[in-house]
Predict the structure.
Amino acid sequence: MDSLLVHYLLRARYLKSRCKVTVHQQSSQKEFSCRRYVISQGRCTTKRGKGYLNMDKLPAVGLLTPLDLSTVDAVPESHVWPHLDESSQKFESDKTVSIPVVDFNDDNVLELIGKACEEWGMFQLINHGIPKTLTAETEEVARCLFALPKSQKMKALNVPGTANGYCMARLTKHHDKMMWHEGFTVIGSPVDDFKKLWPSDYQPFCDKMEEYQLKMKALADKLISLIFKFLGISDEDMVKKLSYIDPATGKPHLALRLNSFPPCPEPSKVIGLAAHTDTSLFTMLHQARREGLQILNEKDGWLPLAPRSDALIINVGDFLQIISNGRFHSVPHRVMIRETEKTTMSMAYFFHPPGHLHVAPYCKPLSETLQTPIYKGVNVKEYFVIKAKASGKGIAALTI
């Protein structure tokens, strides 16, 4: 089965298709009763039907779940990105860029954050209040998780229709090729998933992960208040809604994504995370090693970043671009693989509005002239669907 069809099968999985498979013992075929995949002009739709798959041509199971990349000696065809040797590489700069550094204790922190969001869509935050020891301990939990045998991690495999658990990059559904990455998403308490991973001693792992999330949430609340103040938005009710606490658990319903990028025998052929913008208000990233993260600059192309080890990388997400009416930009970024011997780790905390919230540009007068909205308002849940249908280009789909 070629990689394009695998891609559509993956997309169908995200569309919650269900398959009941029976095996013909005298045949190399498997009969399946499921949704038939109809491929037309680059789109995938489904309808009920029956068919046969030749099992001799089926992809390995690893194509439908994170492949155990630690066991491969060469890059499998499913993970080779041919275009990386062509146009993409031509526009990759050799110079390393240092994005603005903002000291959270600086008296001018408001202006520094606003200027960085306007000019770069991203900045490094130091003296942010997240203890180094807590960050290191949380990172160690992530390392222990990804070091588990593949069979153990599969017990906490992400279920279609949900976001939490062991998973491939969510970007996979937009591409024909797989990424050199395995991930684990934590939303709220990780206790249910961690019980599957560490049945007898899950609690210490849960406690550390929850403590880290609460610290990040407190920092995110401070940042959004400063950002709204810079934009001249005085809607305290909106700030409260963005600081939503799930009444059932008493905890924020936000996402912490753990990313692992294993060493690769041929780094130039693969990509860790394909180019994308974040579907969030903003994202707070801890990167364990300096190499790999790049941002797209219209003039200079892809620019490798050199983040400080004591900083969190804060980048503007799509919802903040909408709310700011384009004043802040959700910058495209990607992760390249540079290591042949060591695993690279990162932890991304996505601060986004609750799913029921309606997000629209705040067109307050920034000077004497009243702004005109350049984006349509949208329900948060609906935006995820819009962005998926637009192959990741959700902002363009809302442009008036």
Q: What stands out?
A: Confidence is low (pLDDT under 50) at residues 1-63, 85-91.
